[in-house]
Amino acid sequence: MNVLEQDRELAEKIWGCGCLYLDYARVAWVNGQFDEADRWVEEYRRCRRELDELLRRKREHDQLAELIATLQERGINITAIIGKGNE
User: Fold this and answer.
1) How many structural domains does the chain have?
2) By residue range, what is the domain housing residue 16?
3) Do the Cβ atoms of 56 and 62 come closer than 8 Å?
4) pLDDT tens profile 46-55
5) CA 36/CA 11 separation, integer angstroms
6) How many CA atoms lie within 13 A of 31 on its CB side?
7) What predicted TM-score, i.e. pTM, was given to this entire model?
8) Helix H or strand E encompassing 87
9) Angle at 53 between CA 50 and CA 59, to 5 degrees
């Protein structure tokens, strides 16, 4: 899963819960418990939103890392720029 290293354990837990909730929804659906199935689908969607946020954070991190590498290739000292912004 393409998430930040510090988010990996949480992402795996969220993924596991999402799988479980889909299984619960399927069982409820097969048993004709449609309201219960809907409830589990909503729980899955909540997990999906949380996982999407972790994936978004990783994409943003990677874009910033790419920008920093590009600036360094061009000889721009990003540390000096950041330091001036904090004065």
Assistant:
1) 1
2) 5-85
3) no
4) 999 999 999 9
5) 25
6) 11
7) 0.80
8) none
9) 150
